[in-house]
Design a protein that fits this description.
- This protein is α+β, with helices and mostly antiparallel strands.
- Helix content is 40%, strand content 21%.
- It contains 6 helices and 8 strands.
- Strands 1-8-3-6 form a 4-stranded antiparallel beta sheet. A 4-stranded antiparallel beta sheet has the order 2-7-4-5.
- Helix 4 packs across helix 5.
- The protein starts with a helix and ends with a helix.
- 19% of the residues are buried.
């Protein structure tokens, strides 16, 4: 009887009204659980972002732990000029306009960020806040990487620091191209180039 009881207990059979031991239930191992949907979405976005080109999966997964998904409606601002830098962003879907407005209300477009481009990463080390305004011009989904954790990660993983330097160089090139547009090209040429860029993203 004792042997039969032990066999029933091992198989999870309820004999005599006693509850089967909970430890007999087959539970999946933690390592076998699939990655949550939002984490896998963030990881796929990071992999397609030029900022993280050449970065190992291990480093990317460390960045995922510091990230969250966000959405912005048309006209909604991610940040304002001079605002506190809380992190940087990768556009997943939609478009973000980074611009400045002078005291008489004239707006100057700095760059239009499309899917998988990063923005505000050049401001991570700034103590003066964001250098411009950023708002969505259409329904937009983004990945936000939080600043405090990422700054700590940069100290631990030099490869990420090199990625940030390359990204800063890209932003500098964008500003140089903007300066060329404003000072070396006439209005017709600038309009033609903007129309060409617009067609390329349709």
């Amino acid at each position: 009887v004792a042997a039969r009881g032990r066999l029933a207990e091992f198989c999870g059979v309820n004999i005599g009204g006693t509850a089967p031991p909970t430890h007999c239930a087959m539970q999946p191992r933690k390592s076998e659980c699939p990655m949550p949907l939002h984490r896998s979405t963030i990881l796929r976005t990071l992999r397609r972002c030029p900022l993280f080109t050449g970065i190992s999966v291990e480093d990317l997964e460390a960045v995922v732990e510091l990230s969250e998904l966000k959405s912005a409606a048309p006209g909604e601002y991610l940040f304002r000029e001079g605002g506190t830098v809380r992190g940087f962003y990768i556009v997943r879907r939609g478009a973000i306009k980074v611009h400045r407005v002078n005291w008489i209300g004239r707006e100057q477009l700095i760059h239009l960020y499309r899917p998988f481009e990063s923005l505000a990463d050049e401001s991570l080390v700034s103590e003066l806040g964001h250098h411009a305004d950023a708002c969505a011009i259409e329904p937009t989904e983004l990945v936000m990487v939080r600043r405090p954790g990422f700054m700590t990660l940069l100290q631990e993983r030099p490869e990420l620091t090199m990625c940030l330097l390359r990204s800063t160089h890209r932003h500098l090139c964008q500003l140089i191209n903007l300066l060329d547009d404003l000072t070396l090209k006439d209005v017709k040429t600038r309009i033609a180039e903007w129309l060409e860029i617009g067609r390329a993203h349709v």
